[in-house]
Design a protein that fits this description.
Layout: E1 3-7, E2 10-13, E3 18-25, E4 32-37, E5 44-49, E6 56-58, E7 66-71, E8 76-81, E9 90-96, E10 108-109, E11 113-118
Parallel strand pairs: 2-11
Antiparallel strand pairs: 1-3, 3-8, 4-5, 4-9, 5-6, 7-8, 9-10, 9-11
Length: about 120
């Protein structure tokens, strides 16, 4: 059974940093991505990384501030978030199976972890 579990969310002040983790189990190493959803808004793409760890992709809104990485030995993906802004506040979801910005191309999703950035 495939499981995807996010961790590392919480409350941080604007300008601060936070690292999210996503542990996947029950399948081989796959492409993985992060999405986020703020209250009243649609789920949006944040970043993705290929299973080979060669290619990474970012939304323009986070480029230069967020870094996605992975440890295939642990089947875990990380999202390092720096220079956080209040508009980064959202529930962050990890998903597997794609590197696309289109959510429907991913097949397994975690439950999400809340990130709140205070001004």
């Amino acid at each position: 059974q495939v499981q995807v579990v996010e961790s590392g969310g919480g409350l941080v002040q604007a300008g601060g940093s936070m690292r999210l983790s996503c542990a996947a189990s029950g399948h081989t190493v796959r492409h993985m991505g992060w999405f986020r959803q703020a209250p009243g808004k649609e789920r949006e793409f944040v970043a993705a990384i290929s299973r080979s760890d060669i290619n990474t992709y970012y939304a323009d809104s986070v480029k230069g501030r967020f870094t996605i990485s992975r440890d295939n030995a642990k089947n875990t993906v990380y999202l390092q978030m720096n220079s956080l802004k209040p508009e980064d506040t959202a529930v962050y979801y990890c998903a597997t199976g794609s590197t696309s910005w289109v959510a429907s191309t991913y097949d397994y999703w975690g439950q999400g972890t809340q990130v709140t950035v205070s001004s």
